[in-house]
């Protein structure tokens, strides 16, 4: 591995890294919104909603993410909906990971002590207010560790966007390696750059966990 090669390849990989971050953030936001909706549907007393959400979650978890990306990118346009590869990658990853986010949120909500909910009802709080003021704040703290893990997984799986020609970091690395045959240099740089993107996410979630942990202890005193 020569420094001249690293210097030459880094700007190209960095451009790909920007796309990787954009895909990750887009998919994370989409999966969070859809996941919360699915979680609330699964916990709904309306049986039809709960069964529909359970079916969707099970189907999404049972399909490989790459197949979902291919379906959105290659099949959806045949139905008259045109999507760019970049848009398809965000939608595909967001939908795929919404199933995992739904399970994260469902577990967090179900972990809340039922006594707190009953107490809130006894003082006249309505269901929406209970969800916003009692359940969700505690559920967020509980779901932070799995949510952080899911965020890192989305970042790593954003590399699958390369299979539908998105010029993200992995795709950039593949093109450089194919044209220069510097496989060791390229893929070592690629691994280190993914690690550099993942570590801030991991550390950020750890700090949030400690913050919410201190807040919970302070509230209990």
Would you kindly provide a brief summary of this structure?
This protein has helices spanning 3-42, 47-62, 65-75, 85-110, 114-122, 127-157, 169-180, 183-220. The protein has 221 residues and is mainly alpha-helical.
Structure report:
The chain contains 8 helices and no strands. By secondary structure, it is mainly alpha-helical. The chain has a single domain, classed as MetI-like (MetI-like fold). The model has no long low-confidence stretch (mean pLDDT 88).
List keywords for this structure.
mainly alpha
**What is the number of helical segments per DSSP (H or I, 4+ residues)?**
8
> Mean pLDDT score, rounded?
88
Helical content class: over 70%
Quickly name the level 1 CATH class. Answer: Mainly Alpha
Shape: flat
Label the structural class.
mainly alpha
Main beta sheet: strand number and arrangement?
none
- Return the CATH architecture: Orthogonal Bundle
SSE run? HHHHHHHH
Low-confidence stretches: none
CATH topology: MetI-like fold
Total strands: the figure is 0
Radius of gyration equals 21 Å
Estimate what percentage of residues fall within beta strands: under 5%
Tally of distinct domains: 1
* CATH homologous superfamily identity: MetI-like
End-to-end distance, in Å?
Answer: 57 Å
């Amino acid at each position: 591995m020569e420094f001249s090669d690293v210097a030459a390849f880094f700007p190209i990989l960095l451009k790909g890294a920007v796309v990787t971050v954009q895909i990750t953030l887009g998919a994370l936001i989409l999966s969070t919104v859809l996941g919360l909706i699915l979680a609330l549907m699964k916990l709904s007393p309306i049986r039809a909603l709960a069964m529909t959400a359970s079916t969707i979650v099970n189907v999404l978890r049972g399909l490989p993410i790459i197949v979902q990306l291919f379906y959105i990118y290659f099949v959806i346009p045949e139905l008259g909906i045109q999507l760019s590869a970049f848009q398809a990658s965000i939608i595909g990853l967001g939908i795929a990971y919404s199933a995992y986010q739904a399970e994260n949120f469902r577990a967090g909500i179900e972990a809340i002590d039922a006594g707190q909910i009953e107490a809130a009802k006894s003082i006249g709080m309505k269901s929406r207010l209970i969800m916003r003021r009692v359940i969700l704040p505690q559920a967020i703290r509980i779901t932070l560790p799995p949510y952080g893990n899911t965020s890192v997984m989305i970042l790593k799986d954003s590399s699958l966007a390369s299979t539908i020609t998105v010029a993200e970091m992995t795709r950039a690395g593949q093109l450089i390696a194919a044209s220069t045959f510097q496989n060791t240099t390229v893929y070592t740089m690629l691994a280190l750059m993914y690690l550099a993107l993942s570590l801030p996410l991991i550390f950020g979630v750890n700090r949030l966990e400690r913050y919410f942990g201190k807040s919970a202890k302070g509230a209990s005193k």
